[in-house]
Amino acid sequence: MAQCSHKLKVFVACLTKKRDELVKESIDAALKICKEQGIPVEERRVRRKKRMAGENADDAGLTVVEEVRRCMFEALDRYKIEVEKRFNGITQLCDMFAFFNPHELLQNKTTRLV
């Protein structure tokens, strides 16, 4: 159980650290496949919102790549939160019963176990 908890912590840390790199590589791979297959990646039509009197901002909208990037970041963040939430019990059990771990017993030779 300690190994499972450790691997989950490492997985979440790796997911957090490499989040930007994963998204960039995934989008690059998808664009490459689209190009090889002859699938055009069309830019979306820019939809302008009606503005109130005195507003200067235009609604530029997101391009296809920006929309995919946003969705991927959202999915990765949600996945990380779900993994942390669902396996929180395992982490708590490991912390509570860490003294059963043989590695901990070998490290704490000075502790008297009675």
3D architecture notes:
This protein is elongated. By secondary structure, the protein is mostly helical. Helix 1 (2-17) runs antiparallel to helix 3 (64-86) and helix 2 packs across helix 3 (64-86). It has one domain (2-43, 59-107). It has 5 helices and no strands. It has helices spanning 2-17, 19-37, 64-86, 88-96, 102-107. The two termini are 24 Å apart.
Layout of strands and helices, then pairs:
Blueprint lengths: L1 H16 L1 H19 L26 H23 L1 H9 L5 H6 L7
Helix pairs in contact: 1-3, 2-3
The residue ranges in which pLDDT falls below 50 over 5 or more consecutive positions are: none
Average per-residue pLDDT, rounded, comes to 79
Q: Can you count the helices?
A: 5
Proportion of residues in helical segments: 55-70%
- The portion of residues forming beta strands comes to under 5%
- What is the count of β-strands? 0
3D shape: elongated
Calculate Rg over CA atoms: 24 Å
* Largest sheet features: none
Overall number of domains: 1
* Termini separation: 24 Å
Secondary structure class reads: mainly alpha
